Amino acid sequence: MRDYIPIEKDSLPEQFEIDLGEETFIIGINYNASYDFFTVDLYDANQTVIVLGEKMILDTPLWSDLVDERLPAPSIVPMDEAGQETKITFKNFMVTTFLYIDDVLETPVIPILGDEENG
Predict the structure, then answer these.
(1) Which strands, in side-by-side order, build the sheet including 98-102?
(2) Dihedrals φ, ψ of 9, to 5°?
(3) Which range of residues forms the domain containing residue 46?
(4) Strand 23-32 relative to strand 14-20, pairing
(5) How many whole angstroms separate alpha carbon 31 and alpha carbon 13?
(6) First to last CA, the chain
(7) Count of domains in the chain?
(8) How far apart are CA 90 and CA 30, in angstroms?
(9) pLDDT score recorded for residue 114
(10) Which of 79, 102, 107, 116 would be 75's cystine partner, CB 3.0–4.6 Å?
(11) Is the pLDDT assigned to residue 35 strictly greater than 90?
(12) What is the three-state SS of 23-84?
């Protein structure tokens, strides 16, 4: 089961420290009420900007299009684990869509010779 990052959407903008991997980061969450979307700012522990204004897109890891050694591992992914939503909105954020720390290792299914039912 993935852990999610609790966000108080009624208190935005919000900024907080978070440990990801072996490093501490500062994350800022913002909401654009005019167009109904959320953005994420990322800073290192010294409040040096790494990324500003990354738009949250459902099922797309944050900063997936960037190459920067300062980015955190594991990935942070806005998701609806039930698969019912098509986009993140103020109405569904922190209700059915959450900002997950994607540190779950998925175990591949390895077919076993002679096990025709599962392979």
Answers:
(1) 3-5, 98-102, 75-79
(2) -65, -25
(3) 3-118
(4) antiparallel
(5) 7
(6) 26
(7) 1
(8) 11
(9) 63
(10) 102
(11) yes
(12) EEEEEEEEEECCCCEEEEEEEECCCCEEEEEEECCCCCCCCCCCCCCCCCCCEEEEECCCCC
15 vs 9: CA distance, rounded Å: 12
Task: Using the Cα atoms of residue 93, residue 95, residue 101 and residue 105 in order, give the sign of their dihedral.
Answer: negative
What is the identity of the amino acid at 2? Answer: R
Residue 73: its pLDDT value, please?
82
Scanning the structure block, which residue is given the tokens 């990801």? 20
Give me 26's structure tokens: 């500062």
What pLDDT shows up at residue 63?
Answer: 94
Any idea what DSSP says for residue 10?
G
Tens digit of each residue's pLDDT (9 = 90 or more) over 64-88: 999 999 998 889 999 999 999 999 9
